[in-house]
Amino acid sequence: MAADITESVPESPWWGWAPFTPGGALKPATRAVLAERLGIDPGAEIAAPPPEPTAAELPESALDAEALGALAAAVATGAVSQGAAERMRHAAGKHTPDLIRQRSGALLAVPDAVVSPGETGEIAGVLAACVAHDIAVVPFGGGSSVVGGVTPLRGAHRAVIALDLTRLDALVELNEVDRTATFEAGIRGPALERALAERGFTLGHIPQSHQQATLGGYAATRSAGQASTGYGAIAELITALTLETPSGTLELGGRAPASAAGPDLKHLAIGSEGTIGVITTVTVAIRPRVTAKTYGAWAFPSFEAGARAIRALAQDGAKGDLPDVCRLSDEEETELTLAQSEGAPVRLLRRWLRSRGIDTPALLLGVWEGTDADTKRRHRRAAKLLKAHGAVSATTRPAEAWDRGRFSSPRLRDELLTIGVMVDTLETAASWTRLAETHRAVAEGIRGALAGGPTAADPPPAAVPAAVPAAVPAAVPAAVPVLGAGPTDPPPNAAAPALPTDPLPCAVQGHISHVYRYGASLYYTFIAAAEADPIAQYERVKAAANAAILASGATITHHHAVGTEHAAQLPAEIGELGVDVLRAVKRELDPAGIMNPGKLV
Amino acid sequence: MAADITESVPESPWWGWAPFTPGGALKPATRAVLAERLGIDPGAEIAAPPPEPTAAELPESALDAEALGALAAAVATGAVSQGAAERMRHAAGKHTPDLIRQRSGALLAVPDAVVSPGETGEIAGVLAACVAHDIAVVPFGGGSSVVGGVTPLRGAHRAVIALDLTRLDALVELNEVDRTATFEAGIRGPALERALAERGFTLGHIPQSHQQATLGGYAATRSAGQASTGYGAIAELITALTLETPSGTLELGGRAPASAAGPDLKHLAIGSEGTIGVITTVTVAIRPRVTAKTYGAWAFPSFEAGARAIRALAQDGAKGDLPDVCRLSDEEETELTLAQSEGAPVRLLRRWLRSRGIDTPALLLGVWEGTDADTKRRHRRAAKLLKAHGAVSATTRPAEAWDRGRFSSPRLRDELLTIGVMVDTLETAASWTRLAETHRAVAEGIRGALAGGPTAADPPPAAVPAAVPAAVPAAVPAAVPVLGAGPTDPPPNAAAPALPTDPLPCAVQGHISHVYRYGASLYYTFIAAAEADPIAQYERVKAAANAAILASGATITHHHAVGTEHAAQLPAEIGELGVDVLRAVKRELDPAGIMNPGKLV
């Protein structure tokens, strides 16, 4: 059974991606891998999250009666809330430092109010009220940003509100002739797919955040779904959108499938992260509902050999042969995946691969979606080309297992963070030419940073709140010793303690998950015992990864977006002049600077 | 034999798309069609163009010695020319009103000098000199704009130069692993394809202007090639570009095949028409050189039936089954095409189609490009689907004939304009839902405007120079009487003279030539006897077509761009606020406003 993409999950803003499960969802095999391979003893039970703050503990709202009145008048069919639970629920997205702070019991900054329009037509009035009363506006959809995109920063303004868009969740129009659907921007992934499925269609944009994220959030962050290799990323799926700005309404696109009427301004709104206006409706290209999936998995002798094969498939395969979901794990990710599924089938698989000369496999998963005849034909042709490039079949089971569990791994982060495990993901994308080098550099950068420990030469960034470390759960083990980076690029502290041979002090696993003709994404999960100051540890890893990414000429983010997390790296990515252009657009559309201050630029 | 896309044609800026051919290239069959069906007697021989103006006839350059010196210093490896021939050669693109004026002997405005950098690195210095000396800059590539995009307007500035980029024609890098190629922006279509062909690749972007246009021009105008259905339009083919602006250099794209690092600023440069900077290098995605083409042609009982069939192919066919070149002519274009090829095969074809119940066929041409096995497989599957939608095979000959003659029809315009025939093309694109209605409205708008004659209720726009009409060649026949529009939307002058039954006073033929999942382009050729004031006639037609396009909710241009021609319609297309955004970007990158004034915004 593939995961049901129309299934809603209960909201769980305080507990990451899914509601807290007493006892936790950590599989015994995962516990064993953590203990035996990484020297991390996840002995403690998954801890319940600390109680939410009470109203008395929250700072008083900075909004005066006049401002509140103006906001309430603007959302006649909606609501303005200053309740503690509502304000807390809009204090953060899923940014790991925020989750760590929340779990430590630290009080995050909260918006002064949560404004929830009941109709898209009310948003212009909200923005006007915020300009009049000097209030910063943080557009808030699913709250699934992992880069601080919804952090309630007030900038230079008197107050800050979260503009919660999730009541705006209607299907406005479904055009079966054009194969397009217009939704209000606050609709979440499962509801969107449900509305389309009822009419026989799908969007096919299913990022890992799908169960909570909203369509407007996808657009605002230039998101890519797990099947973007087949369906295209959100920028390719959007045919039109409406952007409500403090300077007025922009209706972008929608007249034609293509146009030469000047620059395509849709692309200024896509990826704008709420800094120039609020995306209120989005029109997307839709496709017939998936009636069949064909799965395939293949092993390669190395990650680089696998990457060469999927490049050949992307560049020389017939159109459509590339699977819609195309994921190539590196050797470490493959090994950790197999280790968590040990048993007779995995033993058999290992033996089969060794017999074919593959000792440290890199596993490729493919899912072809569509109709039965179509997916089988595409799969057959792709398999032939992959085998010609050294692929060895690994049955269809690993791909089926991925599809079943596609939404569960982000939940694992929440579990692990409570038992002293530092775990997070980061990502980039690079051209094929630079892919292998980028992959090595980023993985080594992360390893070096984790190995460096809290005494590393590079001091951690200053942003860590001093109050946090003490509040981290007691189960945090002592910092583990060094894992040296590869021989080509030793970390600054390579002269420090000798490398332990077993167990390894961290895991840095990578994969390709979005494939293009001229390159691919790279996605990393790093796991280590949490240090006494886990936020400093996190920031050390991110700084090393960012430096490696930029030095490799790759992009600072393929699909997580910029938010507060990558804002410092944006000038290196698009140039100071590029940032100036974004600022000029912002001055025009948001002259008072109220829109999502502190994000992107 | 398909047209050779690597073949250069001699430059012919003064004579439209190809050098003047004494005697002209008008086929007897075309003459017969004009005479018998349109009542146009192209009796006169194609006239030689009037002599080019001499230096003495040109206005004196407004550049003083100091400004000239600064320009010359900026282009150490290039040239600054004030020669009459050079200035005339940069006076206009291929905008029909300009061609009419040139052929009438009228003197067009000319730039004060032509500056031709020898290296891309010199462009920054040229822009600095122009800012310092208050000189407007018109970037000039192939000079193939049909919308006044290279008209040497000086705006509020002291002088204007044409910045000729055609010396910048190097292949900078070809990356066979990434399948990308970086070129200097001034390389023309055939030279670009030659450079790629030598290495086994193609860009596949072949607009009708290909033999003269440059890659930078493609990017600046958001161009679409004739095979864009398969290869994608230029916006999809560009992976990176460099934009030199008066405020500095923007390096856009190139780090990765996709990114979520804020809005994609490439899309601000693509379609910017020289108004914010000069595109100096462009990196494009390339594909293996075409080794086989498969052709197909089918007739449908009507244009609408054909449109339904290609929509089904675009939406429900397997990926790649849609032909790379996909053109569906309406009934009138089909009839005029067949009429120009009368003979035994066409008679046989007509009989065969009638036997299948098709009396007024709409002809679909398809070209599948790639390898032999691949194109045949795609063609076979597409043919099956098309037949299920009522297509009747019309042999492969019409598609082969189109491919042979793909560059010749624009040349016909130049011939016809000298013998009293008003002929031009215009285009739009619309969603499938609105396609048929848009097609009818635009065609009827054009017919009504041509029928209205110079005494129509709507006065022609005021921009027509009074000196021109008298200079039009003597062969211009008297204005022809009215052709009524269809019953659903009578033109304002429907109460005017009764409809003639034979011959028709004008031809308005349309086709789809770029197909997308959610809509298609619409391209029109209109032909009528030229009136005494052909520019007023042209502008009447354009005004009617523009009004019909905008009222239908379609785009004012699918691939011809904005230039001076559609600047007045841009606010209707993207909104006043959209125009404000473009202006804000321009203020940031071109604070002195020297870049291509009067175009786009």
TrEMBL record, chains A, B:
<dbReference type="InterPro" id="IPR016166">
    <property type="entry name" value="FAD-bd_PCMH"/>
</dbReference>
<dbReference type="InterPro" id="IPR016171">
    <property type="entry name" value="Vanillyl_alc_oxidase_C-sub2"/>
</dbReference>
<dbReference type="InterPro" id="IPR006094">
    <property type="entry name" value="Oxid_FAD_bind_N"/>
</dbReference>
<dbReference type="InterPro" id="IPR016169">
    <property type="entry name" value="FAD-bd_PCMH_sub2"/>
</dbReference>
<dbReference type="Pfam" id="PF01565">
    <property type="entry name" value="FAD_binding_4"/>
</dbReference>
<dbReference type="Pfam" id="PF02913">
    <property type="entry name" value="FAD-oxidase_C"/>
</dbReference>
<dbReference type="InterPro" id="IPR004113">
    <property type="entry name" value="FAD-bd_oxidored_4_C"/>
</dbReference>
<dbReference type="InterPro" id="IPR025650">
    <property type="entry name" value="Alkyl-DHAP_Synthase"/>
</dbReference>
<dbReference type="InterPro" id="IPR016164">
    <property type="entry name" value="FAD-linked_Oxase-like_C"/>
</dbReference>
<protein>
    <submittedName>
        <fullName>FAD-binding oxidoreductase</fullName>
    </submittedName>
</protein>
<keyword id="KW-0274">FAD</keyword>
<dbReference type="InterPro" id="IPR036318">
    <property type="entry name" value="FAD-bd_PCMH-like_sf"/>
</dbReference>
<feature type="domain" description="FAD-binding PCMH-type">
    <location>
        <begin position="107"/>
        <end position="289"/>
    </location>
</feature>
<keyword id="KW-0285">Flavoprotein</keyword>
<comment type="similarity">
    <text>Belongs to the FAD-binding oxidoreductase/transferase type 4 family.</text>
</comment>
